[in-house]
User: What shape does this take?
Amino acid sequence: MGKYLGIDYGAKRIGLATADAETKLATPLATVGAAELIATIKREGPFKAVVVGLPRSLDGLETAQTLAVRRFTDDVLWRHLRIEAEFQDEAGTSSLAEERLKGAGKPYAKGAIDAEAAAIILQDYLDAL
Assistant: This one.
């Protein structure tokens, strides 16, 4: 049936999460750099949908980071992989991800926040289906 991929894009780190199309439960996959991203997507795919977190200002307007995410989506996902992405609002996902990891009481690296944020983005998308 396939699976879904969630992406929390950042200039330094890119958080990834996956969900099985049947269960629709998102789980963190990895945090990668730009150089590892394409290989990871090719290895983990194919995907039923690729969902990218879209940042906006508090009043819902596009910001410089919004444009960076759109550029990433066009350059990497579409031009290199021919994947058309779905966008999902990512407001507050990094804070929520950090709270979840702290609440679990386990030590975590900064990159774990990005993968957890990707899982939140993906789960929000799946919950809206």
Helices lie at 34-44, 64-81, 93-103, 110-128. The two ends are 16 Å apart (CA to CA). The chain has one domain: 3-128.
